[in-house]
Design goal:
about 150 residues, alpha+beta, Small Protein B, Chain: A, 7-stranded antiparallel sheet, two-stranded antiparallel ribbon
């Protein structure tokens, strides 16, 4: 499993409750450029429309900029491939004010997969606590290593 891109900011901004694996519908040249590491998921999210899940605001830069369609949009909405039961479950959870955030994209069996996290937004107080815990752990490691 080769990781293409990660959304580290999402793990800090959201409290992830569940994780799902989904395929993603891409054009041929998008798949090639995504496999070469030109897939950016920071700031993207997933929404439900017409009993389907779509990835919004993700960017796939073209591998060869002069060799693409004239009207190509690198930030177009991309359909996520999930089972019907998973889609129904996620739509129910999204109605409960939870968010669906992409955590990382990777290659599995020569297919591009995306790991989605179902979570809720963390408040500033929670973020401060996480930062304090991280600083304390770093100080402990420094003391142990000396």
């Amino acid at each position: 499993m080769k990781i293409i891109s990660e959304n580290k900011k999402a793990l800090f901004d959201y409290e992830i409750l569940e994780k799902f694996e989904a395929g993603i519908e891409l054009f041929g040249f998008e798949a090639k450029s995504a496999k070469s590491g030109r897939f950016n998921i920071t700031g993207s999210y997933a929404v439900a429309k017409n009993n389907q899940i779509f990835l919004i605001n993700s960017e796939i830069e073209p591998l060869q900029p002069k060799n693409i369609q004239i009207n190509y949009d690198s930030k177009r909405n991309r359909k996520l491939l999930l089972h019907k039961s998973e889609i129904k479950y996620l739509i129910g959870k999204l109605n409960q004010k939870l968010m669906l955030i992409p955590l990382k994209t990777y290659i599995k069996n020569n297919l591009i997969k995306i790991e989605l996290g179902l979570g809720k937004i963390r408040k500033k107080i929670d973020k401060r606590e996480i930062i304090k815990k991280r600083e304390i752990q770093q100080k402990i490691k420094k003391i142990i290593n000396q």
